[in-house]
Each structure stands twice: as structure tokens, then as C-alpha cells.
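Q: What does the assembly look like in three dimensions?
Context provided by user:
Components: two
Sequences:
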Amino acid sequence: MAPALLSVRNLTVAFDTRRGPFDAVRDVSFDVGAGQTLGVVGESGSGKSVTAMALMQLLPDTATLTSGTIAFAGPSGSRNLAALGEREMQKVRGREIAMVFQDPMASLNPILTVGHQIMEPLRLQMGLAKAAARARAEELLALVRIPSPGDILRAYPHELSGGMRQRVMIAIALSCGPKLLIADEPTTALDVTTQAQILELLRDLQERLHMSVLLITHDLGVVAEFADDVMVMYAGRTVERSPVQALFDKPGHPYTEGLLNSMPPLEDEDPEVLQAIEGNVASPFALPPGCAFHPRCPYAFDACRQALPPFAALGEGHEAACLRVPC
Amino acid sequence: MILRYILRRLAFLPLTLLLVALATFVVLRLTGNPVDIFLDINRTPEQVEALTQRLHLDLPIPAQFLIFLRDLLHGDFGESLQFSGSAATVVWDRAGATFQLAGTALGLAVLLGVTGGIVCAVWRDRLVDTIISSIAVAGQSMPSFWLGMLLIEFFALQMRWLPTSGYGEPRHLVLPAITLATILLPNFVLITRTSILELMGEQFVVTGRSKGLSRGRVLITHILPNAINPVLSFLGIQIGTLMAGSIITETIYAWPGVGRLLIGSIFKRDVPVVEAAVFFIATTIALANLTVDVLQMLIDPRIRRS
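A: Here is the predicted structure of the complete assembly.
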């Protein structure tokens, strides 16, 4: 694996809600190599997006990063982002780490032109003058393959299609040349053809700009196509980490196995009935003791209910938190 | 495109005004014979006859309405019964005082209300929010005539800082403007607060922060511009409340505006002046709403398109 650009260790995020406190992310560790893509997979509520927001220090007011380090390789050595103050984080956001979100309509301000929104980080973060920022914004729109960028700069978000808006979001994210792009379900809100185009674009841009990508998704198909490594999360914890091929060849955690079985088969495979994972995601307020997945696990035995299973190695860079590993 | 929209809206204005005219006409004829009330007890049959003819009360009701409409098209509401001069002139002469009072009160309510709302939203659930929001909720339930009397009692009678009534100098404007502003102010605080808090949860706010903008910058460039329209919508709805409030306030402080004229004319059954005054107030409300709609269109490109 390439030297890590981002190295997260033992990240824990606590929420304080009206229903009581809970940890949305527990003891999560992962690396993202320079120029690599890490896919983070899990159901809704597994802590994927909270992890991403914690990296940016953009957690909601009800959440706190209670422990963990976020080592990010910068121009002047590695820094722990978790320890940075708001002022310093503002220089990291957009400039070194940028984000693309799920819903491209809601992500753009409806009453400002596309041009205004792209030029905003260029002027503030890069200190470009208006004319230079406009020229750069046009280049960026061309980079994300938007036809007639000059017109689009003057357009408002509602005048664009979903795919176009997501391209604009990507252009905004790339505007200051970030080293890491966090893409939080970037294609979920788009139709299938557009999804493929956006993924294609992201992959192409990643190669050309030598960016690292943290790709959050619940779609293993997207991971298979795009990611180098995968982290599977369940109920706030990492349950499996693996290079992408190894995960599909030999899933170590029963939850990963369940996710793979619930994927629609490819055309050349025999159509089978899709297998759903039994039961519901554990409530964060009443997590089962031991392995949080045991109530839904077809293989669970007594020991699973008692202690948190440690990570066990399955291969090079491949480990799973399950007592059955290696089996 | 905006000009076309304004013209289209203006084309509907006569319809609104026609309905207002009809309502005024009907209500005035449902509340007793103006002749009986306007003329005193020593009236002669000749006086009754003359006034009945002057107000066309001897004609069938539909004919009366047609005459009313015909005169209306000429801007003619008839001669005032209690003052010399046409009803339209009598009302127009007092419009300035009403605009002065309502304008000052509205400016005060918007300025303080929006500022208060922003403060409450930014420091949500902190002490300052609790205090301002509580005062706003209490203020909402305070009748303006009661507040007006309290203000007169304290500032005018006890402290003798300000006059109880009168017109012409800035000091005369203080208490009436505060009283009228208080009718709208609490709602502006609460509406602004809610709008901003709602917008703070929007995804584009997170986008702004993810670009590296500070909280303050996101507030000023992304949240506040989006909060203008909900506040403007509310303002449009409240123009009616403002005009109604100015009738009460003008009466309390003997402010020589259209509102006080209207109340006096109703009691005296000065039919032409009542019609002209109601018509004036309705036109003001309609034009204010048109202005609000046009402003909203300028602010939000999504409205411009549809």
C-alpha cells in the first residue's frame, strides 16, 4: 500500500440527544493511501457519514469527537486534525480535504449562481481576484465535462439536472486542489446512467489529479468498480477491512457476507433470489453485548454474545472482527 | 420578465379594488340609514330629502352601486358630509400622517425584529435567546391599546418625557410608533429565528462550511439571503395587521391620520369619507403586497422562472 495520506486511529464520536447519549462511531481506525480510494460500506446509521464529518470537524452541535487521532500528511509534515482549532481547520477544509454530498440539489445554495458558488472558495481560500476566479471556475467546469461552462456559471442550481449539479459540486470540491476528496454517497440520488457517468468522472479525475478518495456508499457494486480498499462498518464499528478483491473473493465477517449476498447478481450469473439480512440494524441506544451483529448473525454462538471479537487476519491487509476468523 | 410580471399583477389590481368597493358599499348599507344618523334630532324633512338625494339613497340598491362605481372610476367618492371638500381630498390630506406612523413602526419592527431573530438563532437556547424569545411570546399576547395606555401613563403622565398626543415633531411620533411596532415586532423575531434555524440544517450550509467558510461567513452569504423571503412573506401578510393597528394607534394618540379619520367618519356616518378611507387602506395593502411579491422574485430565482 502507498504511504498513508490519512491515518485515522481509534476514532470515537459521541452524540448527546434527547433520548440520551450514544456513540455513533466507536474505535474506528483506517488508512487512506496517497492516490488511493477507500470505500466505506455499511447500512444507514452505521456511522459512515459521521466518520466523514468528524474528519472535517463538521459534526453537528450534538456530537463530539471523544477520542482518536486523525493524522493527515500536509505540506509541513503530518498533523492531527482532531487537535486543530477552528481557524486552522478552515484552511484544511476545501483546500486540503474537500467533500461531495449525496443530494446535489440540496448541496447548492438555491439563490446564488453556480459561478458565485464555485468562485467562493477560489477567492477566499486561494485569494484569486474576481476575473482570475471566473476564468478558473470556467476551467473547472470544463474539467468536470460541463458543456458551455460560461453559460452554466450564470445559471442557478434549479436550472440544472441532477447529474449537472453533482458535476458542479465536484468542480467546487476540486477548486482548491485538495489531496483528499470525501465523497459521501455521491451517486445515490442520481439515476443509473448518470451514476455511471459521475463515477467514471470521479475515477478519471482521481487519476489525473492524483487525489485520494474516501468513498462512502452502501452500494458494494460502486465499491467493486472504484475502490482499492474497503472498510465495512456496522453499528458504528469497523467489522472488516480489506483490499477490494480479497473482500469479494473471501468475505471474513458474516455481515459482509450478508451484504454480498444481498447484491443483485451480474448479468452473466444465474439469477437467484436476493438474500436479505434478517432483522434490523441495532439501535444505538440498546446495542447488543459482545458483537453487535450477533442477533442477526446466522453463525452466532455463545462467545459472540459475551465479548467484542478482536480483529483476526485473513490475508495481506485483510482482517475481520469475528470469532469465526480464520475459519 | 419582471416588468411583465408587475404589469400582470397590476392588471389584477382593479379586480381586488372592485371587490373592496363592493364590500364597503354593502357593509355601509347594512348598518342603518346614514341620513338618520348623520342628521341631528332637529332635522327638517327638507334636509332629509336633500341628503337622501345627495347620497342617491332614493334609488334602487343596484343603481346606487353603479353610480358609486361610475364615480369611483373618476376618483370621486362624493363630498364629505362633515368637512368641506371632496372625500378623496379629505382622506389624501391625512395619508401623509398615516404613512409616517406606519412606515416608522414597520421600519422599527423589521429592524429590531430581524436583529433579535438573528441573535436568537445564532445563540439558540442560550440565555439571550431565552430572554428575547420569552419577551417576544409575551409581546405577542399584549393588546396594543393596552400597551399604548401603559406607555402614555408611564412616559407621558408619570415621567413627563413625551407628549400624550399631538403631531408634527419627532417626539410626538415616539410613543405611537413604538405602540404600533410592538404589534408586529414579536412575530418578526420569532419568524426570523425559525427561518434561520431551519436554514442552518440545510445541506448547502454544510457545503459552505466544507469549502472552508467560517460560521459567520456562511451566515451572512448563505443563510441570511435565504431567510429574507420567508420574512418578506410574513411582512406581506402583516401589512393588513399594520394598517388595522394604525387605526387603533391613531385613535389612542389622537394621531391625525386616515385611521382616526375613518373611525370618526364611521361614527358620524360620513359615508363618502368612510368609502374613500377604506378604499385608500385597501389600495395601500394591495400595493404593498405587490411590492413584496416583486422583491421576492428579485431575491429567489426559482420564483422568477415559474
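Follow-up: The interface with chain A takes residues 202-204, 206-214, 217, 221-222, 225-226, 299-302, 305 of chain B (CB under 8 Å).
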